[in-house]
Amino acid sequence: MCKIKTLNKISEKGLGLFGKNYQVSDSVESPDAILVRSAPVDTDSFGGLLAVARAGAGVNNITIDKASAKGVCVFNTPGANANAVAELVTTVLGMAVRHIDKAAAWVKALDLTDPALDKTVEKGKSKFSGSELAGKTLGVIGLGKIGVLVANYARWKNMSVIAYEPYPSVANMHKLSNVVTVVKTIDEVIAKADFLTVHVPFIKGVTENLLNEKNLALFKGSYIMNFARGGIVNMDCVYSMLESGKLTGYLTDFPDVKSIQNDKILCLPHLGASTEEAEDNCAVMAAEELKDYLEFGVVRNSVNFPALEGYPHAEVKSRVVVINEDVPNMIAEITKVFGTAGINISSFSNKSNGKIGYNLIDVEKSVDNSIIDLLSKLPKVIKVRIIHF
């Protein structure tokens, strides 16, 4: 029986994928795996933990380094909420340039006893005159699944799009409209955009303050959007630009005390993935990732382990999973243990990512836990487990 602990409300479409061999509940103790959305997860708080699946893209709520040190695989669900976020970005930009939120608030505050209400409305609407998106240039920083959709949606609105992606994925780039201009530097995007949106993960010391005082000095447009993660845009720079009038507005899904108090900042309560469809998609993907990992050792969409897919053939009785620090000669050391124990290896798969080495060893007979003890004694081995079929 595999025990899955849920730390948030998870869509039933995802939970329904776990069969009778699983116990899934928020009250589970000593879980084999955790299924989470936004709740904080300290992996050191759970002994015997094998995996954590985040039903969403960002994993800043999970202690990744601690997880890696103890051989805990952490998954996310890239792309599952991409459409929800992309639709929100284009919707909010449209609202901003037409001042929809302010106009709606003004209407709600009207005196309903005013006998000349119709005339008041007609006279007052001029305060909310806006502009159109068509013909303007959207700058997109980051062409992952979300960034590509945002760029394509903008094209459908007859906008020009200029974009930057330092590590382009072939799969994502194939989905990008062929009239989007992809350039080699962030600076070029910033300098040519009327509106700027960022869609990269937050990585401390890498994408932290990616948009900053130096490169935003090039921005001649009106709105900057951050629906990716807090910390990517330097907010001190944003406040300074708003105060000076260099920036018309800032649109974000990550409010804090200071941004909420600024009338030129439109803050939303992290609504990016808050659609029924996105929550279903994320839960299904996260559940499938956990099931494949727990039942077969398959790694797909992990943020700390190398990807390794491959299901055992019919004659395999045991699959030994070995997780080690990524150092030379580990494959030889592991196979030597099997040879010394007189165990014939049917197949051996290995992948590494520079930090973690991940190994799947298939055997056509049932092996007992003595092999775990032998492998665990090897220097640099982090975790060993056996999956029986």
Write a brief caption for the model.
The protein is α/β, with parallel strands linked by helices and 389 residues long.
Number of strands: 16
Rounded mean pLDDT score: 96
Total of helices: 14
By secondary-structure content and strand pairing, the structural class works out as: alpha/beta
**Number of spatially distinct domains:** 3
Kindly report how far apart the N and C termini lie: 14 Å
CATH fold-level name of the largest domain: Rossmann fold
The level of helicity is: 25-40%
Residue windows where pLDDT falls under 50 for at least 5 positions: none
Largest sheet: 7 strands, parallel
CATH first level of the largest domain: Alpha Beta
Return the string of H and E elements. Answer: EHEEEHEHHHEHEHEHEHEHEHEHEHEEHE
How much of the polypeptide forms β-strand, as a percent range?
15-25%
CATH architecture annotation of the largest domain:
3-Layer(aba) Sandwich
The CATH superfamily label of the largest domain reads NAD(P)-binding Rossmann-like Domain
Across the major sheet, the strand order is 8-7-6-9-10-11-12
Round the Cα radius of gyration to an integer and report it. Answer: 25 Å
What features would you describe in this structure?
By secondary structure, the protein is α/β, with parallel strands linked by helices. It has 3 domains: 1-81 and 277-305, 3-Layer(aba) Sandwich (Rossmann fold); 82-267, Rossmann fold; 309-389, ACT domain (Alpha-Beta Plaits, 2-Layer Sandwich), CATH 3.30.70. It is built from 14 helices and 16 strands. It has helices spanning 12-15, 64-69, 82-97, 100-108, 117-124, 145-156, 170-174, 186-192, 213-216, 235-244, 257-260, 276-296, 330-340, 370-376, and strands at residues 2-6, 22-25, 33-36, 51-54, 73-75, 137-141, 160-164, 181-183, 195-198, 223-226, 249-252, 265-267, 318-325, 347-352, 356-363, 381-388. A 7-stranded parallel beta sheet has the order 8-7-6-9-10-11-12, with helices on both faces. β14 (347-352) and β15 (356-363) form a beta hairpin. α3 (82-97) packs across α6. The radius of gyration is 25 Å and the shape is elongated. The two termini are 14 Å apart. The mean pLDDT is 96.
